[in-house]
Amino acid sequence: MKTHGLNPRIRKSPFFASALKYGATEFHPYNGMWMPVGYDTPINEYWNTIERAGLWDVAVQRIVEISGGDARDFMDILTSRGLSKVGVGDCRYTIITNQDGGILNDPVLLRMDENKYWLSTADNDMYLWAKGVAVFAGMDVQIETPHVYPLQIQGPKSPAVVSAVFGDQILDLKYYTWMNASVGNIDVVISRTGFSSEVGFEVYLLGNENGDALWEIIIEAGEPHGISPGSPNRIRRIEGGVLDYGSDIIVDNNPFEMGLERLVSLDKPANYIGKRALQRIADTGVSRKITGAFMSGDVFEKNNEHRWRVTKDGVKVGEVTSAVYSPRLKRNIGFVLADIDVIRNRNGLEVDTPEGIRDLEITDIPFIDANKTIPRQTLR
């Protein structure tokens, strides 16, 4: 098992033993926990995700809970997205920005009650950020990290698997909504969300007990449907235009250059953190933008371990943030953050990879299912 060294400082999820039992061979630290990132080959995990169903331990998506009488108003200053239409039972993809408009995190928000929200966070400490904001906000809010640990079940067979475990009412769950459910004495929250661009669910285990039991129940129910443990599939998420915080998005990036302007409400009354900076950026425009890219040559042997330099006539004009080989497109694909003028012109670009210089062709994202109809499909 490749782990970079186990120690008590980096915690194990309630599913850690199951991940080992079912063949996890590599773990990375994420939000202070071990995240399994490899079972089978990435290509095999890819085909399983798009043809059957994958079971992913994503307990590392640390849950930050905001509750109290002023929770609604507090959320309005914490995130740039308008929340006026978010009711109990709804989920939203959101961003958290700093005072300069830089993106600190891109969590999925779940409204759990009138005065309680969850943030299912990417790899950056939103707990400490939210606690710090709360100290100076003067509002009636409590910031906690409850014992809640998500799994993802993703792929076309996921509705059959999840309904077999938790009942057919799951099939009425709409995209980006959640519901309570249970199996035996195991209580969970289930949402129609995920990181795959396929139809899928996140199953939030309530409490740190019963992780292995829940895993086995899902595996047993999924066997007739070809379920297989895996990790969030890099190939499929790039095909689907899903950006990864820490890889494609860093704090130096603002929402407008990352194509996330839909998550910025400059008109909402709340004076949220970063609003003035985001207004200035919207007024002046951005000099660079993220988009898709095809890259020539043989199949990439490895994913990019760092951003690759993109040049035109020998001058750096951008960076490839993520790159993979797509088995369906039969091409090397990825995301490139490049100068606006370069994106408009598109010609004469090269990328410097560890496997040599490749020609780079600008294209749109997503690469597959441009309207994202697959994850939104009606389940019955």
List the helices and strands and how they pair.
Layout: H1 16-21, E1 26-30, E2 33-38, H2 42-51, E3 53-57, E4 63-67, H3 71-78, E5 91-93, E6 96-97, E7 103-105, E8 108-113, E9 116-120, H4 126-137, E10 142-144, E11 148-154, H5 158-166, E12 178-183, E13 186-191, E14 200-206, H6 211-222, E15 227-230, H7 234-239, H8 275-284, E16 288-295, E17 308-312, E18 315-326, E19 331-339, H9 340-345, E20 349-353, E21 356-363
Parallel strand pairs: 3-15
Antiparallel strand pairs: 1-2, 3-11, 4-9, 4-10, 5-8, 6-7, 8-9, 11-14, 12-13, 13-14, 16-19, 16-21, 17-18, 17-20, 18-19, 20-21
Helix pairs in contact: 5-6
Per DSSP E runs of 2 or more residues, the count of β-strands stands at: 21
* Strand fraction: 25-35%
Level-1 CATH class name of the largest domain: Alpha Beta
Mean pLDDT: 96
Which regions contain 5 or more consecutive residues with pLDDT less than 50? none
Q: Based on the structure given, which CATH architecture of the largest domain is correct?
A: 2-Layer Sandwich
Report what the structure shows:
The protein has 380 residues and is α+β, with helices and mostly antiparallel strands. The chain has 3 domains: 16-61 and 147-238, Gyrase A, domain 2 (2-Layer Sandwich), CATH 3.30.1360.120; 63-144, Aminomethyltransferase beta-barrel domains (Alpha-Beta Plaits, 2-Layer Sandwich); 287-380, Elongation Factor Tu (Ef-tu), domain 3. The chain is 21% helix and 32% strand. The chain has 9 helices and 21 strands. The strands form 5 sheets. A 6-stranded mixed beta sheet has the order 12-13-14-11-3-15, with helices on both faces. A hairpin with a 2-residue loop joins strand 20 and strand 21 (356-363). Helix 5 (158-166) crosses helix 6. It is globular. The two termini are 41 Å apart. The mean pLDDT is 96.
